[in-house]
């Protein structure tokens, strides 16, 4: 049996409506993430929590020591669950995440979190490149509207594009219901 871990990426206060980078669909993503986390705990699966902070002293968001960097309580790590502090979108870059996964003989990772088009996508691509089988539970992820060349891209399209790109070559994409039923 393949050993699997859930990687919970950046569910931090900064992404709530009270934060500096509120995301579309965050309540829905958090509710699904909480269900997935509970199921992993009940099933004895490994959980790894990832938290973003910017190392630059002039950072405007994810400032070390601020309320914005704190993990949202609904999906907070339980005692003994590892927390990986990262400074880049890819949770493997400059961290010991791969080492921790390898120490537990993890072969498959399930990724949930924020933002779909940034840290979820970056971490998923890196995990695939490192040889892990990757699943993204898309309705346990959230993102925001973007703008490119004066064109506003709605959050739903940003999310769909990120998931479509991952599905093309990097990850299996599923929903919470299908994952929990599987």
TrEMBL record:
The superkingdom of the source organism is: Bacteria
- InterPro entries from the entry? Isochorismatase-like_dom (IPR000868), Isochorismatase-like_hydrls (IPR050272), Isochorismatase-like_sf (IPR036380)
Per UniProt, the keywords (alphabetical) are: Hydrolase
Q: Which GO terms describe its molecular function?
A: hydrolase activity
Enumerate the spans annotated as Isochorismatase-like domain. Answer: 5-156
Family matches, as PANTHER family = ISOCHORISMATASE HYDROLASE (PTHR43540:SF1), PEROXYUREIDOACRYLATE/UREIDOACRYLATE AMIDOHYDROLASE-RELATED (PTHR43540)
- The protein in question is named Cysteine hydrolase family protein
